[in-house]
Amino acid sequence: MLGAGERTREGLRERKKARTRASIREHALRLFREQTYQGTTVEQIAAAAEVSPSTFFRYFPTKEDVVLRDDFDARLFEALERQPPGLAPISAIRAAVKDALATLTPQEWVEFRESADLSFSVPEIRSRALDELAHTVQLMADALAKRVGRAPDDLAVRVIAGAVLGVIITVTMPWTDLAQDKGGEDAFRRVDEALALLEAGLAL
What we know:
- By secondary structure, the chain is mainly α.
- It folds into two domains: 1-60, Arc Repressor Mutant, subunit A (Orthogonal Bundle), CATH 1.10.10; 62-204, Tetracycline Repressor, domain 2 (Orthogonal Bundle).
- 76% of the residues lie in helices and 0% in strands.
- The protein has helices spanning 4-35, 42-49, 53-59, 65-68, 72-82, 89-101, 106-121, 123-148, 155-172, 175-180, 185-199.
- Helix 1 crosses helix 2 and helix 9 (155-172) packs antiparallel against helix 11.
């Protein structure tokens, strides 16, 4: 078990890593905006964020990942862990989505919309997004499995994880709609309505 001092140092390290990650992503999106995605190199992003290219790759395995990987998933799954154990899985996910969205700053909403626009318009990112989706489905399955006391590869767990992500993708595509949604409220109101339909059994 970590002592108080060790926990403090660990917390400081994690906050420093989070700041570095956010800085890299912020500078990357700015450069993409100023000189296009294709016209920006990893070396330029690293220089702007005052880190080495090797540090960039420790945080983002590929240039596409700097667009696709923000910390929203981490906030979502942390919020899911905080939901009361008596809530059904989809109810807990709906509440967690609302909680995670409430943490987004105006600047993060801007970055969210820019990422959505790039994900739709840049073929390399759109292709990489499929791998990222599989990664997110696994994270969702892990989180649900922990919540309900089953294995992550349990069929029901994976079906619910896939259904939730499928619903979210369906109602936020085309991603240009999300990019044009200045406050984000409309897109995520649709997400909540769609998850409510899933929760009710998708009766037609």
